[in-house]
Amino acid sequence: MIQSKKVKNLNLFTIKFPVPALVSILHRMSGVFLFLLMPIITFSFWYSLLSEQYFDQVLIFFNWWPIKITKLVLIWGITHHLLAGTRHLLLDLQLGLDLISARFSSKTVLSVSFFITFLVGLWSW
Amino acid sequence: MVMVKSNILNFFGGMTQWLYQRFTAVYMLFYLIFISITIWNNSPINFDIWMNIFNSIYIQITTALFFLLMFFHSWIGILHITNDYIKNRIIRFFLNQLFALMSIIQSIMICILFAGSYR
Questions:
Q1: Environment class of residue B2 by beta-carbon count within 10 Å: exposed (0-12), middle (13-18) or buried (19+)?
Q2: Who among B25, B50, B109 is closest to A55 (CB)?
Q3: Architecture of domain A19-124
């Protein structure tokens, strides 16, 4: 057996992500997060269309403070997933493939998603 | 022995999954913009306005399609993620089945919701 002498550094705390990699991994993580919260969204949408009483119950549920915080994270997840996905579609169309514009677009995605989350938080709190 | 698998009529190969992911993404992007504008225009939402929005047949069809495509999109995404990070085949298999079951139950809920409004 020949032992490989390659130096491996897969410690996540010492690896420094480039910005596009950060956007990519956050795209994945927000996707998983959205997938896990999807039953809540589907169920509350279904419940809110049944009758007025249930609609009010859904409103009360979504104005409970832990749900409010979760809702903000959810809004961040949706906007980030949307923007990063749009960036991915543009990359598939071979737009913005060079390093400078890729870094610029990923910084734009990060900042715009946080900005939109901030705005929605201000509007809905 | 080399197995050559035909790409024709392979509706769930890697290339078609890639395409499904893109097309569903584009549909959901446009739907989300459209529904946000609709909700924004009827801005102080109460139950009557909420019911009125979803009484329109076009909104019902596009919404049902949105939810179904969302379950499909998320299921493909989650298949790729479990494939990448979960090495144990048995755990991965059962997780995939569980996630598929979750998606199917939610699809049935959405279908019942919008089919029920025609009775």
A1: exposed
A2: B50
A3: Up-down Bundle (1.20)
